[in-house]
Amino acid sequence: MLSLRNYDIKFVKGIGPERAKLLGSELGLHNAYDLLRHYPTSYIDRSRTYSVRSLHGATGEFPMLQLRGRFISFNVVGEGAAMRLIGLFSDGTATIDCVWFKGVREMRKRLATGREYVLFGKPSYFRETLQMTHPEVDPPETVEAGPGIRAVYPLTEKLRHRNIGSKQLHGFITAFLANLRAPLRDTLPDSVSRSLGLMSLDEAIRNVHIPSSPQALESARLRLKFEEVFYIQTDMLMRSRRRKADIQGFIMPRVGKWFNDFFYQCLPFELTGAQKRVIKEVRADIMSGRQMNRLVQGDVGSGKTLVALMCMLLAIDNGFQACLMAPTEILATQHHTTLCELGAKIGLNVQLLTGSTRAKKRREIDEGLRNGSIHILVGTHAVIEDRVVFRNLGFVVIDEQHRFGVAQRARLWKKSVVPPHVLVMTATPIPRTLAMTVYGDLDVSVIDELPPGRKPVATVLRYDEQREQVVRGIRAQLDAGHQVYIVYPLVEDNEKLDLKSVTEGYETAIRIFTPYKVAFVHGRMKPAEKDAQMSLFASGEASVLVATTVIEVGVNVPNATTMVIENAERFGLSQLHQLRGRVGRGADRSHCILMSKRKIAANTRERLELMTSTTDGFVIAEADMSMRGPGDIEGTMQSGLPFELKIANLAKDGQIIQLARKAAEALLDADPELTSPGNAYFSAALKDMLSRTTDWSQIS
Ligand code: ADP
Ligand code: MG
């Protein structure tokens, strides 16, 4: 399999240098290995034929499908670049336009009216007309001879225009496989394939492209998915086992003045049991002589910041500096403020470094980091720039890590010879199998207890026509001296419109909530302006904050008791949960109002109703994954992986992930460094795979 990497696809029958270039630039396919691993995204049953009439009036997106009938007429319209061929096609039930923008003359010559054809393609509406652009057209005999289940490949528009469709791609792959002299060598250890009864690689590759039956296809997909997650699991486990065995960590045995003074003089409340437990776990790690890599999962409001601070104080007690990274400027600023307040009494020196820190301040910070007078540096990505040099960085906290790329984490390592201890904090409840893959190499602590006195946020779903009643409710909260968030969605592909609606929302709020002051924050604002508006709200001067999702993570205003989420139907569950976590932080009863239009899809309503019935982050995360599929969660999580998954799906393939995890453990128990001859080929394949990405050896 590995030698296929040296086989240029231009030598594959039917491809040639021109197409090879195109496949390389469009799909990243350069060699035979890439080609065989370009898996179909779906399959269609070519034994099924649709009637054209059944397509008329249908709504939503059409799948790739097959029609059978005759062309009634052909027309060449337009000239030069705008020239196109329109073939009117009928199967006796109705008609559809077939359109070719490229290869017009060639198609016109090839096709005849009155003769029977099988068309294959994706129908769509152009204006009011049903059409199919660049369909595959074949005489019925050739289609009937082919396999019943046909692969549909990921393609680009450009490829289609150059007449490389699923069929062509499939042809290249089939030709290549047919010419192979020996079966593909298996890339999984024999022992693993055998014990799990997995299909051989050779069979799996053949069946994924040319399924011999639905069952064989399923086994093939299972085998290929398993391989992907098994590689990741093996790699993660090896790294974490090695790290535990050899990577030295700073030894921090002392609990000294900083920790104790804070604990006895400054701690504003009793720690929860879960907070105490996590601090103990961290303490055991940093005394062990090995580098700590620990993930702390705790729902919003569970008090992670305090835990982070107390752990950093332990590092400071042992003569080290600490650093806290946050994904956004607002969050970093807020952490900075919180830590300064908490540590003021004991003289803790906490500094803030972000992209907008002025040059003069920067120089002071540089100096303080070098001479060791700064205890804690809080910041955004700015802290991982090479020019930031610490005297002795020993402990790093990363807040909301999923927004902080793994590669960025790695840069911290360069900042000291011995890697600092790392504590990753996340409020995104990650279902177990997902955590196992993405954070498979981290030790996990969970803060599963909220500080006492928190009341669950009462959540209701309201429709647009109930707005007046909602406004009355808000006013009552304001009159009682509380503060209110009003949140609008903001998505990139719709930015202009969204900006308009949040701006209108702001203007309306000013009008209907006079004399209360309204603050306004959105993602397009300059950081300084944002901060000014945020502090208006945080200080209590403004009673209402109209905002886009920039407030999603971390903002802490305990007096805010109500959150209105506009267009709640457009948010994902986990995002709603994060947002809702902004209220319910004080002792008063809090409310979250999900505003939606009345007409929404059934599953959207289900999603919103779930929000009204639970505040358990894990329940919500699981539901989010199962209802919405991989969605956002997977997207953000994928960035944490050593290579891109081509066929496995983190959200849906939980069982395979667990299977792979167990198999990887067993394999490494028996052969920790994969040095036995039986594992040699697998080991080479794994190394090869990892070498194609960033250097992950630095990252744990
Ligand atoms: P998150 O885990 O979401 O980052 P924070 O650290 O922001 O949560 O804490 C949320 C709020 O709870 C803060 O106002 C914090 O001061 C408070 N808090 C933290 N720990 C406790 C505790 N043990 N008892 C009471 N309040 C606490
Ligand atoms: Mg937080």
Describe this structure as you would to a colleague.
With about 700 residues, the chain is α/β, with parallel strands linked by helices. The strands form 4 sheets. The protein has a 7-stranded mixed beta sheet with strand order 6-7-4-3-2-5-8. A hairpin with a 4-residue loop joins β3 and β4. α12 runs parallel beside α13 and α22 (about 600-615) packs antiparallel against α23. Residues about 630-635 and about 695-700 have low confidence and may be disordered. The structure holds adenosine-5'-diphosphate and magnesium ion.
Summary tags:
alpha/beta; 26 helices; 700 residues; 7-stranded mixed β-sheet; globular; 7-stranded parallel β-sheet; binds magnesium ion; binds adenosine-5'-diphosphate; 22 strands
Short summary:
With 700 residues, the protein is an alpha/beta fold. Helix content is 42%, strand content 17%. The strands form 4 sheets. The chain has a 7-stranded mixed sheet.
Low-confidence spans: 630-634, 694-700
The percent of residues in helical segments reads 40-55%
Report the C-alpha radius of gyration, rounded.
30 Å
Rounded mean pLDDT is: 86
- Overall shape: globular
Major sheet: order of its strands? 6-7-4-3-2-5-8
Question: Helices and strands: which structural class?
Answer: alpha/beta
The biggest sheet amounts to: 7 strands, mixed
By DSSP, the count of extended strands is 22
How large is the share of residues in beta strands?
15-25%
What is bound: which ligands? adenosine-5'-diphosphate, magnesium ion
Measured distance between first and last alpha carbons = 29 Å
Number of helices: 26
